[in-house]
Structure formats: structure tokens, C-alpha cells
Design goal:
single chain, about 50 residues, mainly alpha
């Protein structure tokens, strides 16, 4: 059963993360902040 989980691909063939982690981090926080602000404004406008 353990053989079932063995990786057959060569580690050099596995695709590595190629991106901009700082940009993704900043974008994630920006989106989260905007969603929070929109939620607060919507609750205020609709008097929820």
C-alpha cells in the first residue's frame, strides 16, 4: 500500500511556484480590506 503513494516524477520536473509572493500577499490584503469596507457600508446603508 505504501508503494501507492510514492512519487514517480523527478523532482527537477515538478513545476515550482513561479510568481510574485509579495504582490499576491498585498493583493490579498487589499481585496480583504475592500470586502470588509463594503460589508460595513452595506450594513450601515441598509440599517442591518
Amino acid at each position: 500500500m505504501a508503494e501507492h503513494w510514492k512519487q514517480t516524477a523527478d523532482p527537477s520536473e515538478i513545476m515550482r511556484a513561479t510568481g510574485y509572493p509579495e504582490l499576491e500577499y498585498a493583493a490579498g490584503w487589499t481585496i480583504a480590506g475592500l470586502v470588509t469596507i463594503v460589508t460595513i457600508v452595506a450594513a450601515w446603508v441598509f440599517a442591518i
